[in-house]
Design brief:
Length: 421
């Protein structure tokens, strides 16, 4: 009787390029089964799937793929097939390549084979791209784009402010105390109407009132008009007239860039919040103190909705950068903050922890205890964020919303003791 053995595992490596991709397939023994160069289009993807099918690829047992990027149409289509896709750091590929060649030869085909062999040897040491839902991926696109737009807005604001300091101190003084400063609609409207200090000094009270209404102001128009008129009428140093006019044109160009950045950030904020509210995890995430629709969308964008992505709460904390790193050697032992982390998740984590101080008595008490223990402000916030990440992992796994009494039981006990006293 013929004994049929189990199928031999096959691993695929893809060396990504802009207009073409090199493919390599190896078996469990390291033998290269096939290599192919495909184009970066639908025809090339069809060639790839055909090659995988020839070597045992099926819907129930798809061949895993290693590639040096987590973005692009090729990666998106590979993930849509339900297979495991591993985004390998190019530095790791370069180190692995050196294991097989002291001459340090390099080619796209060699890199593709190295990627396939990384999966063959160390597949368990690498994390596949998460199997997030389509809605979660859409939220990630919008939330990250909105965060990029906010950073672009800040950069455009700083450029304009730096340029205005050269010739237009009155407008900086007029909006120095505003929350958004030059990003506010009032500041941008006034600056568009009066791009030079000479033009600002000529604005009448009626013109200023019209500009404030145009910017959307509804209350305190008379008082704000008097304040702006007084600021623009003060004595300031001036550039030469022609130089001032030229600087005004430059300021107008920078203002248009700032206007575009502000509109982009506002539009993407609405889109990200709308998409986030449609996700089933939104009520759980928003139940945490300090998280709203936008910050919640940023959290969901980075952790996704694949429940198997993180094995435990510690893995999620390490990914967020909230868990510390211990470096020990001999008698030396140092505990320090984690540098390798998801920077976007870490950024929203500090905002989350800061806002929660006024929304949650337990969070405030926890922060104060860390400060009393000797932590500085950033370290205490990071510790609070670390605790929140553990709670979030539990709530998402259990499908439960945040409960203040369970999150900070010591705080509830203290309150009861104070009431009894």
């Amino acid at each position: 009787m013929e004994i049929v053995g189990l199928p031999t595992p096959v691993f695929c490596g893809v060396d990504w390029a802009e207009d073409h991709h090199d493919i390599a397939l190896v078996d469990a023994g390291g033998k290269q089964l096939a290599k192919l160069r495909i184009t970066d289009d639908a025809a090339g993807f069809a060639q790839l799937t055909g090659l995988l099918a020839e070597h045992g690829d099926t819907e129930t047992a798809p061949i895993p793929v290693a590639i040096e990027t987590s973005r692009g149409l090729l990666v998106a289509r590979l993930r849509a097939t339900g297979r495991q896709v591993f985004a390998i750091n190019p530095l790791a590929v370069a180190r692995y390549r050196d294991r097989h060649s002291v001459a340090r030869k390099k080619s796209d085909a060699v890199d593709a084979a190295a990627l396939a062999n990384i999966l063959r040897v160390d597949m368990a040491a690498h994390r596949p791209l998460p199997a997030d839902s389509e809605l979660a991926q859409a939220v990630a696109v919008l939330a990250r784009a909105q965060q990029d737009a906010v950073w672009d807005r800040g950069q455009a604001h700083n450029k304009l402010r730096s340029q205005l300091r050269e010739f237009y101190p009155s407008v900086l003084a007029a909006f120095a105390d505003k929350r958004d400063r030059l990003c506010s609609r009032e500041a941008r409207t006034v600056l568009a109407a009066a791009p030079t200090p000479t033009a600002a000094a000529k604005l009448t009270r009626r013109q200023l009132q019209s500009l404030l209404r145009q910017a959307g102001r509804l209350r305190g128009i008379e008082a704000e008009t008097d304040r702006l008129h007084e600021v623009f009428q003060r004595e300031y140093l001036h550039q030469l007239p022609q130089v001032e006019a030229a600087l005004g044109q430059q300021a107008s160009a920078l203002l248009r860039q700032l206007d575009t950045a502000c509109r982009n950030a506002d539009h993407l904020e609405e889109a990200a919040a709308e998409a986030f509210e449609q996700h089933p995890d939104a009520p759980i995430i928003r139940s945490f103190p300090g998280l709203g629709s936008l910050t919640g969308a940023r959290v969901l964008a980075e952790i996704g909705d694949d429940r198997t992505r993180f094995a435990n709460a510690g893995s999620l904390k390490a990914y967020a950068g909230s868990a510390p790193v211990t470096r020990a050697s001999g008698k030396s032992c140092v505990v320090m903050s984690r540098r390798v982390k998801n920077q976007r998740l870490a950024a929203v984590g500090y905002v989350w922890a800061f806002v929660s101080l006024t929304r949650s008595p337990g969070a405030r008490a926890h922060y104060d205890r860390r400060k009393e223990a000797g932590d500085r402000h950033v370290a205490a916030q990071r510790n609070l964020f670390n605790r929140f990440m553990g709670m979030l992992f539990h709530c998402l796994q259990a499908g439960a919303t945040y409960d203040e009494t369970k999150a900070f039981p010591n705080q509830r006990s203290t309150e009861l003791s104070n009431e009894a006293a």
